[in-house]
Amino acid sequence: MDAVSEQVKDMEKVSKELLKLMSGGKAMNMLKHILTKQEQMIDKLLETQKTTKQLIQELMTAEVKVAQKLADQEEELNASLQKLQKIEDELLQASEKDDKQRTSTSELRKELEALREEIKQEKSMAEAAETCMAAKYLVHLYYAICHIDWDYSCEPEVIKGTHYGPDIAQPIYLSTEFSRCFISNYLWSLVSTDW
């Protein structure tokens, strides 16, 4: 820009010198015409220079705005990246915590299943003991009432045992060929009705 203004000043000097030299006759009119054109060119040049300065200022202002916008967007991007990193870290921690809880839950389920199995076995044993006690009680009660010792080593088709009555022990030997009603009546007939 300074070079343009220096050229303008140089042209003005040249114009003044030419005016001095041609101060006579036709040259004067021609010189005036040339000087008028030169002044018009200088005016256009100054106007162009002014417009150029204004455009340069507008460009610099636009550059500043764009640079500011770019800096703001870069700052937003960095903030978003930090948020994303924080979310990824939280997700990783949550995933690790979830894995630990799943492992813990799995172990607790195994322990619970073991406890259930243990309780089931204890319950089964208690029921078996109760059943055994009830069976023993029934056997003792049955023996106290009927006084019969059964022989379990005989064949399934045979009912065998010994009845210990009030006076004498009497052997029992029945076949399953007899009706159930007959067998039941016979066995009840052995039971004493004296209480």
What does this structure look like?
This protein has helices spanning 2-21, 25-146, 180-190, and strands at 148-150, 158-164, 169-175. The termini are far apart. The chain has 195 residues and is mainly α. The chain is 78% helix and 9% strand. Strand 2 (158-164) and strand 3 form a beta hairpin. A three-stranded antiparallel β-sheet has the order 1-2-3. It is rod-shaped. 0% of the residues are buried.
Key descriptive features of the protein:
195 residues, mainly alpha, 78% helix, 9% strand, rod-shaped
Give the helices and strands, then pairings.
Elements: H1 2-21, H2 25-146, E1 148-150, E2 158-164, E3 169-175, H3 180-190
Antiparallel strand pairs: 1-2, 2-3
Helical residues, percent: over 70%
Cross-sheet strand order for the largest sheet: 1-2-3
Q: What is the averaged pLDDT score? A: 83
Coarse structural class: mainly alpha
Alpha-carbon distance between the two ends: 144 Å
**Succession of helices and strands:** HHEEEH
Radius of gyration: 64 Å
